[in-house]
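Title: Prediction job returns without error message
Component: structure pipeline
Severity: low
Priority: P3
Assignee: unassigned

Description:
Job completed but the reporter wants confirmation the result is attached to the right record. Sequence as submitted:
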Amino acid sequence: MEGVSSAGTGASVGRALARIGLLGNPSDGYGGAVLAATIRDFGVEVQIRSDERFLCDGVEVRDWANCDARELAGAAPLLIAALRCFHRHAGPAAARLGPLRMTMTSSVPFRVGLSGSSAIVIAALRALGQRSGIALSGPDLARLALEAETEELDITAGPQDRVIQAHEGVLLMDFHDEWTSEAVELSLLPPLFLAWQTAGGEDSGRTHDEVRPRFLARDPEVVAAMQRFREIAHDGTRALRSRELERFGRLMNENFDLRASLFPIAARDRELVVIARSNGSPAKFCGSGGGVVGVVRDNRDRLEAAYSGAGFSFLVPTAGSCDS
């Protein structure tokens, strides 16, 4: 299983990588399609050891099956949600787990659209699978991770983060009817950059509060936009495969502009895009705000200076998988 190893100290270890939405987001929660990639620069590791008590991210939880995990601090709610979903999936086989000590470390910047919370859940599920000897397929891993956040914690979330983090690499994912995905060659990606707010952006769940009711009411503007996001993801994948990088860049810009026509954009988030465009690079949100991904041309130094001067963090990421 990808992202799983033994620490050699009696610990079971699960890992997951940050992800960037390249095209199509945020349509995954609306039956759309997304092109996304995992990056090796940021990730999460969850370690599980046997213990006499149940300890979750340093917090003792006496009744993990029935407590309100949302009242706990730190990563504990996500870890407990993952444990509950894993127990439902594994059935009697999960009984062999016994009391556990679950710890989490993360290098993923907070609330900048790199899917740090879903990475915690994916890493926890991988560690639980290793601990119990139950292999989780990519589809099962993604489904359980989505259930952990949406059903256990009432977080508004779409499937793309969990699917790409379960499979890793670069994927075109379509959620129009059933979940489908196809791998895209990593070598086809143009040179990319990330820029983000050091202090983080807004809660991603709140971003959809105004648009989702309109979509459920079949508002023509929202329905048409979600269909166009889906087309953008597919068109962009074809552009990569035909090596039409200028077209790919135009689609990134269209993706952001379409998003901005529907969703509120904070001034600091908009500044992230303005800096890219004013320095000759297309850019769009990595996720729901707080950070952008764009194409680097011959302007890396200029881009980095512009973002650093405005108080943003900057990185040229390495796309790939845990094992690459």
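Comment from assignee: result matches the submitted record. The two ends are 13 Å apart (CA to CA).
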